[in-house]
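Hello forum,

I keep getting stuck at the same step: I have a sequence, I want structure tokens, and every attempt I make locally crashes halfway through. Rather than fight my setup again tonight, could one of you with a working pipeline run this one for me? It's a single chain of 110 residues.
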Amino acid sequence: MKQYVVDQLRPADERRVREFLERRYGPPALGAIFWVPLEAGLLSPLQSAHRDCQPHCAAIELEAGRLSLELLIRSRQRLRCSCIAYASRAQREWLIGEIDAMLEELTISV
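Reply #2:
Ran it on my machine without issues. Output:
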């Protein structure tokens, strides 16, 4: 699995990240997974055409001392579909930018 990982988070920073993610994306699924919906302009033509599969999201998993951003764009509606794929360059840059902006806003240096 392709991922963007931020590790060595201190417990206080981890709590601040969790609070931020809950405010921005709602309560986590399965206790530690946050779903980041992609903006419509970032979707591939296939993802845009698959309206029944939307929203398309990436998963952030927050564990003890670490945050992992999966670079697989998933459908929240279906487990298997041709529109589920690894992030394009633009999607990847946007997702990583979102994580980096969050860390900057929370003044967490890693």
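Residues 89-105 form the longest helix (17 residues). If your local run keeps crashing, start a new thread with the error log.
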